[in-house]
Amino acid sequence: MFLRVEEKQSFPPPLSAKEERECFAAMKEGSMAAREKLILHNMRLVAHIVKKYGQNEENTEDLISIGTIGLIKAIDSFNPTNGARFATYAGKCLQNEILMHFRSKKKNRCEVSMHDTIDVDKDGNPLTYMDIICSDESVSDEVFNRIASRKALALLDTCLSERERYIITRRYGIDNTKPLTQRELAEEMGISRSYVSRIEKSALEKLYDAMNLPTACSDV
């Protein structure tokens, strides 16, 4: 089944819970029409997930096709009796299919970009290498050794916002506190891990820049 999805195309509306159950029941009896109906009425979900990955227009159609493959796999493997919503299950299948495509593509080219999507967080947002690079223990140790200097510690108060300072302090145990992982800190602050990672990365860049400047910054 080949689908061409244009930006302004009007997708069929999602099926009601009752219609969805009826289609899965009919599909179990061998109805290909019910299977096709499930595919067509879930194309909005495919388009929605593809948009999250921020690809250019040249890649959008490819991702729609790949996402559609993930949708078909979800339809063929979904068990309506397990109590889960199909949209939730299908969303994970679609994201996995797209992520596998990215990984395979980069592996074949032997190329890796810091902005490549490699996973999704608990909110379904794409995670790149840049988002999670600060979570490696070896990197954490190196960063801590650098900011342990007197100059860097002084810059915490002059260069960082209150939230950035809190995250750096808690992440690396600067005030004699136990260092926290990004996941632990995200749970403590009630935000996503990817957001913690972005704030941490921005704060570290400020510290590195400030340490290389003749005059340390004083305005946050």
Structure description:
The chain has 220 residues and is mainly alpha-helical. It has two domains: 17-111, Orthogonal Bundle (Rna Polymerase Sigma Factor, Chain: A), CATH 1.10.1740.10; 132-211, Arc Repressor Mutant, subunit A, CATH 1.10.10.10. Helices cover 63% and strands 3% of the residues. It has eleven helices and two strands, in the order H-H-H-H-H-E-E-H-H-H-H-H-H. Strands 1-2 form a two-stranded antiparallel sheet. Helix 8 crosses helix 11. The radius of gyration is 23 Å and the shape is elongated. The N and C termini lie far apart (55 Å). Residues 1-8 and 132-140 have low confidence and may be disordered.
What is the N-to-C order of secondary-structure elements (H for helix, E for strand)? HHHHHEEHHHHHH
Q: Mean pLDDT across all residues, rounded?
A: 75
**What oligomeric arrangement do these chains adopt?**
single chain
Low-confidence stretches: 1-8, 132-140
Summarize the structure.
The protein is mainly alpha-helical and 220 residues long. The chain has helices at residues 17-28, 32-40, 43-52, 57-77, 86-109, 129-132, 137-147, 150-159, 162-172, 182-189, 193-211; strands spanning 117-120, 126-128. The protein has 2 domains: 17-111, Rna Polymerase Sigma Factor, Chain: A, CATH 1.10.1740.10; 132-211, Orthogonal Bundle (Arc Repressor Mutant, subunit A).
